[in-house]
């Protein structure tokens, strides 16, 4: 167990399950105080109960959040500040999948929802986190965005909506890093490869043919799924002061898939 985040207050969106939960566990293991943010209240309660048996109550809190809603995003950041007096690290992990459809099969309602959660959500959360970071006597803070290797590819990993959302998140990451570097605020993005997480639950019950082809092509190159705890360790390191020289970086965590 490391102490990379000792003394830090960290908020993780999408933190009640999947990769988000793995990141919460990794942050707690690194001695952080953690706020778990998620839209699923039941999952939040189950996660808090599970982790609360291990961690002391003063190291863990939860808040129901719809990251695509500005009031909800603002309240989540304020919850961390009210509960623990400050926020040091924001980890934007909440996300949903699309139906793996290119533009000719695009469902506008699904497009809008994917963009709202995967792109607008991190923007809104970052907006209020940065306001807090800048308001300190000595401005500082770190934002970690969780993207996908879909941000580097056009024909692999996802459909038009998801791919666009993750490409956009790379742009937001770099813009945020550049805008606030002089104020001591860092922003980086990790791009995981294929993982076994609950994001699959937001996909269609019967995946279309393109999904099958994508999965087969990815597994042919790298037959094993990336482990969520391995990605989580990468996120913890980049969020810590040990990575203070890293800002605006795009870090792949895909077991080498994009190297092929």
From TrEMBL:
Q: Which UniProt keywords apply?
A: NADP, Oxidoreductase
Instruction: Report a single Gene Ontology molecular function.
Output: quinone binding
Q: Which residues form a coiled coil?
A: none
- The answer to whether keyword Membrane applies is no
Q: Name one GO biological process term.
A: fatty acid biosynthetic process
Gene3D superfamilies from the UniProt entry: NAD(P)-binding Rossmann-like Domain (3.40.50.720)
| Keyword NADP in annotation | yes
* Family statement drawn from the similarity comment of this UniProt entry: Belongs to the short-chain dehydrogenases/reductases (SDR) family.
Q: What is this protein called?
A: NAD(P)-binding protein
């Amino acid at each position: 167990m490391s102490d990379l985040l000792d003394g830090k207050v960290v908020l993780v969106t999408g933190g009640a399950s999947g990769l988000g939960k793995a990141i919460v566990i990794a942050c707690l293991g690194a001695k952080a105080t953690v706020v778990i943010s998620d839209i699923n209240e039941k999952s939040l309660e189950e996660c808090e109960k599970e982790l609360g048996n291990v961690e002391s109550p003063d190291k863990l809190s939860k808040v129901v959040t719809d990251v695509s809603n500005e009031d909800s995003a603002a309240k989540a950041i304020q919850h961390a500040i009210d509960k623990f007096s400050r926020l040091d690290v924001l980890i934007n992990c909440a996300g949903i999948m699309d139906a793996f459809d290119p533009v000719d099969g695009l469902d506008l309602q699904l497009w809008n929802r994917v963009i709202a959660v995967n792109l607008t959500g991190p923007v809104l959360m970052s907006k209020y986190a940065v306001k807090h970071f800048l308001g300190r006597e000595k401005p500082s803070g770190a934002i970690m965005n969780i993207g996908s290797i879909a941000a580097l590819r056009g024909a692999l990993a996802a459909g038009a909506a998801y791919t666009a959302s993750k490409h956009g998140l790379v742009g937001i990451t770099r813009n945020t890093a550049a805008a606030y570097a002089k104020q001591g605020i860092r922003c980086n993005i990790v791009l995981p490869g294929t993982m076994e997480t609950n994001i699959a639950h937001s996909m269609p019950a019967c995946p279309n043919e393109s999904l099958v082809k994508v999965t087969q092509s990815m597994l042919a190159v790298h037959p094993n799924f990336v482990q969520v705890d391995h990605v989580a360790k990468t996120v913890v390191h980049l969020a810590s002061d040990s990575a203070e020289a890293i800002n605006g970086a795009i870090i792949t965590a895909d077991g080498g898939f994009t190297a092929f």
